[in-house]
Specification:
This protein is mainly α and 184 residues long. Helix content is 63%, strand content 9%. It is globular, with a radius of gyration of 17 Å.
């Protein structure tokens, strides 16, 4: 019962964040996807028996990242943070939510291909884990995933950022390093 209530709470929180404007931050939109990419490399097993799975997962992740930006609304506040970076807000929208669902389903398929059980309890736990990952940023650092799952999550996140930057190049400045002061 507690798991269902937690899942409901996380769905409401995640849904509310998806359909409202959120400030782009370096930690959420840049450092966490880079951490996931590093974990992909660190978890990589050179003896992996399914290289095709990694290729297909990578391709799916890029497509999902692109699809997630389709309904994104980007708002430039025309103000700067204390480091001189522009403050930009993004409303992710329905396409982000659908992309998240695709990542979840592909993750389940990867788990099934690895021989893990797809019982209701397992799916519920995975749903809670994925929602915690997206709503509670510190959970990223406590997540233990396999190489294909890390690849899927990190590459879809990095692709999402890449395609958002294509829509509005000012995003690169918003999540970049602070502006260097020149005394000249």
């Amino acid at each position: 019962m507690f798991s269902l209530l937690l899942l409901l709470f996380l769905v409401v929180t995640f849904g509310r964040k998806t359909f409202s404007f959120e400030k782009l931050t370096r930690i959420r939109f840049f450092l966490i996807p880079l951490y996931g990419a590093a974990m992909t490399l660190f978890s990589f097993d050179s003896g992996i028996s399914q290289p095709l799975l990694l290729v297909l997962t990578g391709l799916a992740a890029v497509v999902i990242g692109w699809l997630q930006t389709r309904s994104a609304v980007i708002s430039d506040t025309h103000t700067e943070d204390r480091y001189g970076r522009p403050i930009i807000r993004v409303k992710k929208g329905l396409s982000f939510l659908l992309g998240w669902g695709a990542v979840f389903l592909i993750g389940l398929l990867i788990e099934a291909a690895a021989g893990h059980s797809l019982a209701f309890g397992t799916i519920l736990r995975k749903g809670i884990d994925d929602l915690e990952y997206d709503t509670l940023f510190y959970k990223v650092f406590a997540t233990h995933n396999t190489t294909p799952i890390w690849l899927l999550v990190s590459l879809s996140s990095l692709s999402y950022i890449f395609f958002l930057i294509q829509k509005n190049p000012a995003i690169r400045l918003a999540i970049g390093r602070k502006q260097k002061k020149t005394d000249r």
